[in-house]
Amino acid sequence: MEILIIGAVRGALYSLIAIGFVLVFSVGGILNLAHGTYYMLGAYLTFIFYTMVFSGEGTSCLVLSAVLSVLSVAIFACLIYYAVLRPHIQSFIYVMVMTLALALFVGEVMSLLFGVSGTSVPSFVEGSIRIGGVKIINQQLILIPIAGLILPGLWYFLKKTKMGQSIDAVAQERTGAILMGVSVETATIVTSALSAGLAALAGALIAPVSSVVPDMWLFPLIKAFAIAILGGMGSLVGSVVASFVIGYAEVLSSFLISEQLTELVALVVIVLVLILKPSGIMGYKIR
């Protein structure tokens, strides 16, 4: 029971992080190495809004802080796309170098502002619950229903709305979408906002149960990269499946071998998939 629950919690968290990473790659061809930075900013901005703007007054202010954090990160991602990435978006190397530089720069700024010791915010849902004799922190448990609402909501947006269908068309066949009059520019900017917002939401939700530190951007980047490779670069369904596969693989390795080895799982997945099945579960081969 403990493996089932903890694995589901991790899978839900990883899916929120990874699906945006895969989506922006599918639509804009952007391998965003600053994706983890949006996760980190989601956590830090929640702390900033809650403690400095609302003076730490109640759960409603905490929820509002998280919402403002997600919106702020989404706007920041749009500005980065327009000012930094868009002028040379066709250069794969340029995009990788600039997004990595952005991640390192923002990490250093947070170190100067808040130090390296870490900060934290209160839980959105206090206390814990026992399920089948297993004690689970409520803050971690809410990741499952939140992911359960957001992921189908994202699918509905992509398949049933005009804007979402434009994004989906660009992801599936870029040239055909352009010929049909779809604005690739608009699709990319909306996707950048969605991608950053989902990562920021994951950071805001995990902040109460994890120390908020400047180098926390690296953790989600490695997870997102491993999930994208396992699920298949360009496959949203594959990324969700891979999120839970890696989540359960980490939990199993923790229980059966050692908790210290869980962080190696994602790296091992990257190496093995690239060697044995470069296309991943549902994607295409990485060149």
What does this structure look like?
With 287 residues, the chain is mostly helical. It has one domain (12-214). It has helices spanning 2-28, 35-53, 58-85, 92-114, 138-141, 143-160, 162-172, 174-179, 184-206, 218-231, 236-256, 262-276, and strands at 128-131, 134-137. A hairpin with a 2-residue loop joins strand 1 (128-131) and strand 2 (134-137). The protein is globular, with a radius of gyration of 19 Å. The mean pLDDT is 86.
Identify the strand order in the major beta sheet: 1-2
**Which geometry do the CA atoms define?**
globular
Return the domain count: 1
For the termini, the CA-CA separation is 40 Å
Radius of gyration: 19 Å
Helix count equals 12
* Mean pLDDT across every amino acid position: 86
Strand proportion, as a percent range, falls in under 5%
Strand count, sense and closure of the main sheet? 2 strands, antiparallel
Total strand segments: 2
The percentage helix is over 70%
User: Helix and strand string, N-terminal first?
Assistant: HHHHEEHHHHHHHH
Return residue spans where pLDDT drops below 50 for at least 5 consecutive residues: none
Structural class estimated from helices and strands: mainly alpha
